[in-house]
Specification:
This protein has 356 residues and is mainly α. Helix content is 46%, strand content 11%. The protein has 2 domains: 238 residues, no CATH class; 99 residues, Serum Albumin, Chain A, Domain 1 (Orthogonal Bundle). The chain is built from 18 helices and 10 strands. The strands form 4 sheets. A 3-stranded antiparallel sheet has the order 1-7-6. Helix 13 packs across helix 14. The longest helix has 17 residues.
Length: 356
């Protein structure tokens, strides 16, 4: 099985914009604070963070909260997260060990390389791993019943949530592509217009899908009614994902990389995740006096460190030698290649290159 980093899938099973603002009493503007006596939940949308906090308050553990927030963010940020996408999950166990759940997308068995590069569309959709990885996390560490963890996401999809400016802008920027796809157009543009920030956004069809997953578990998504719907849609529109691809998908164990950065321990997922890139970049930056840099010099240093790490990714992939990826000596030598123009910060330039 091959896992592929660039592929992702956003299913057109989803959204509906509320035709008019709901009465003030029923608007879902107020969400539960993400911090509770039992822990803190963090997500890119307040409603998704609140979903995790809600589960913590009900006696769930961190794994339960992560599952709830994971499904909720798929509702509230459709352009960035999806039950049809990929995931990498890193868990720190009570004993201090780390476990990786690799939910990356997988190349369909029947995939054929196109004659010309294709950036989007059905031809670049791979077998999704989010639902499987969340189910694996729950099976390994969950405390509450699976169906309970999906209730916040189902509620958000049915009752709606307040559209944030970032999500509204991303959907607006993709308007032409949405209009070109009948499924997207039907579900994301019921009134012919992109949703507006502050508007209540509802996803009733996604709610129905989530109810099936809540009742039947990941089996529905990979072998059940939802799997059949995905396979039919793929076959009708030139996609490669089949029922066989979905049924064969499994979450894989992954490896992690770690580094000490200025007194902080950083842990992340090795390839096919991007943790190696993060570790290499931080190890480079650790050699620079960032506290003395101007804002412009700091930004330039981070940019160059990222570029150095990215340009050497092929040397590491598939990161069979993790010691090489985490090498402080390599990072020290690489840092010598960073050059900050004197105009940005003359003192920093002297510190980094030895000359003003």
């Amino acid at each position: 099985m091959k896992r592929l980093l660039p592929f992702s899938l956003m299913l057109a099973l989803t959204a509906c914009v509320a035709p008019a603002p709901a009465p003030e009493s029923s608007r879902p503007d107020s969400v539960q604070p993400p911090a509770t006596q039992n822990g803190v939940s963090v997500a890119a949308h307040p409603a998704a963070a609140a979903a995790g906090a809600e589960i913590l308050d009900k006696g769930g553990n961190a794994a339960d909260a992560a599952v709830a927030a994971g499904f909720a963010i798929a509702v509230t940020e459709s352009t960035m997260n999806s039950i049809g996408g990929r995931s990498q999950i890193i868990v720190r166990t009570p004993s201090g060990e780390f476990q990786i759940f690799d939910g990356m997308t997988e190349i369909p068995a029947g995939y054929t390389e196109p004659a010309e590069p294709v950036a989007d569309g059905y031809g670049v959709i791979a077998t999704p791993g989010v639902v499987a990885s969340l189910a694996s996390l729950h099976e390994a560490y969950g405390r509450l019943p699976w169906q309970d963890l999906l209730q916040p996401a189902i509620r958000l999809a049915e009752q709606g949530f307040v559209m944030l400016p970032g999500e509204a802008a991303r959907q607006a920027s993709a308007l032409e592509k949405i209009q070109d796809n009948p499924g997207f157009q039907q579900n994301f543009l019921p009134g012919g217009q992109s949703p507006v920030a502050g508007e209540v956004f509802r996803q009733p069809v996604l709610a129905t899908t989530l109810k099936r997953i809540a009742a039947e578990g990941a089996t529905d998504f990979y072998r059940g009614e939802t799997a059949a719907a995905i396979a039919r849609d793929m076959a009708a529109n030139g996609g490669f994902v089949t029922l066989e691809d979905l049924a064969a998908y499994k979450t894989l164990p992954g490896r992690y990389v770690t580094t000490d950065y200025r007194g902080y321990q950083i842990h992340s997922m090795a390839a096919p995740g991007g943790g190696g890139l993060v570790v290499k970049t931080l190890n480079i930056l650790e050699n620079l006096p960032l506290a003395d840099f101007s804002d412009a010099a700091w930004a330039l240093a981070v940019n160059q460190a990222l570029a150095l790490a990215i340009n050497t990714m092929n040397d590491d992939y598939p990161e069979t030698d993790l010691e090489r990826v985490m090498s402080k000596e390599w990072a020290r030598k690489a840092a010598a290649g960073i050059h900050i123009p004197a105009l940005a910060n003359r003192a920093a330039q002297k510190d980094v290159t030895g000359s003003a």
